[in-house]
Amino acid sequence: MTQVARPAPGKPRRLDTFTLASEPGNERLALARVAGTVKDLGLSEARLERLKTAVAEATMNAIEHGNGNRPEIPVEVEVTLDGDEIIVTISDQGGEAHAAQNAGDPEEPDLLKKLDGAQTPRGWGLFLIRNMVDAMNVTTDGQRHTIWLTMRTGGAAHGEHV
Amino acid sequence: MASMCEATTRIVPGAAVIELSGDIDGSAAAIMTAAYAEAVNGDSPEPLGTVVLDFGAVDYINSTGIALIVSVLARARAERRKVVACGLSAHYREIFDITRLSDFIELFPDLDHAVSQLTGPAA
């Protein structure tokens, strides 16, 4: 049986922080590094895969929509363990860009509408993130835009027994 | 951006198979489009009513890749072709369920299962 070290309650522990250049494809670096950071925290394989997808999609959004694919503007990633919650924050400098993108309450992706041409085939990113993690929050402080991904170490994915 | 996706196509009785490998992301758009065209326009003695997407050697699919798959499915539906998929990992099968792609694309564990289903039981 794997023993997982837990921090004392109420004491969040920062496990890692790093930055990435805003270049397409760098989301794979974020995915791999976060996966390495959390690999011994007791997430099941299915939930680790879900977190990896959420981190990749959130990082893609930060690179593309937040920082406009400008390599000189970094995407900041931080991984924290708070009790049994893994919290990954991904920050960019595109507060206004995100606000413009989300103006008018964007429609939820609907596959049938996409197949019929009533919606663009794209637009799955936030939908996937919301469905992959236990909680997703977004904060904006001026230009700094941060997405917060929370995954409990003991939860179960759909149809999965832990 | 250089693509890390590769696609090869071949014909089995009644179906065109697109074997994908690497990453299905934004860099795969041209390859996916070309592979579909090559697969369905291939030299086949009979109409190709089904397209098989084989993901057995795919490492990564992101939201842009999902959009590419939606585009392939939309084109196939417009041409009255069925799309089936095989070789997806448990994680990507879950994503096909969440996005409802699996409502429109029948999923098989691997290419052998997909082809045997398409060609029917042996006499």
Quick overview of this protein structure:
Chain A is α+β, with helices and mostly antiparallel strands and 162 residues long. Chain A has 5 helices and 5 strands.
Q: Which tags fit this structure?
A:
heterodimer, A: 162 residues, alpha+beta, Heat Shock Protein 90, 5 helices, 5 strands, 33% helix, B: 123 residues, alpha/beta, Transcription Regulator spoIIAA
Q: Which stretches of chain B are poorly predicted, pLDDT < 50 over at least 5 residues?
A: none
Largest interface: A-B, 28 and 28 residues
Radius of gyration of chain B: 13 Å
- The helix-and-strand class of chain B reads alpha/beta
Largest sheet of chain A, in brief, is: 5 strands, antiparallel
Question: Which ranges of chain A are low-confidence, i.e. pLDDT below 50, for 5 or more consecutive residues?
Answer: none
The CATH architecture name of chain B reads 2-Layer Sandwich
Architecture overview:
- The complex is a heterodimer of chains A (162) and B (123).
- Chain A has 162 residues and is an alpha+beta fold.
- Chain A has one domain (13-152): Histidine kinase-like ATPase, C-terminal domain (Heat Shock Protein 90).
- In chain A, 33% of the residues lie in helices and 25% in strands.
- Chain A has helices at residues 27-38, 45-66, 95-101, 111-115, 125-132, and strands at 13-20, 75-82, 85-92, 135-141, 144-152.
- Chain A has a five-stranded antiparallel β-sheet with strand order 1-2-3-5-4, with helices on one face.
- In chain A, a hairpin with a 2-residue loop joins strand 4 (135-141) and strand 5.
- The two termini of chain A are 13 Å apart.
- The mean pLDDT of chain A is 90.
- Chain B has 123 residues and is α/β, with parallel strands linked by helices.
- In chain B, 41% of the residues lie in helices and 31% in strands.
- Chain B has helices spanning 29-40, 63-78, 90-99, 101-104, 111-119; strands at 5-12, 15-24, 50-61, 82-86, 106-108.
- Chain B has a five-stranded mixed β-sheet with strand order 1-2-3-4-5, sandwiched between helices.
- In chain B, strand 2, helix 1 and strand 3 form a beta-alpha-beta unit.
- Chain B is globular, with a radius of gyration of 13 Å.
- The model of chain B has no long low-confidence stretch (mean pLDDT 90).
- At the A-B interface, helix 2, helix 4 and helix 5 of A face helix 2, helix 3 and helix 4 of B.
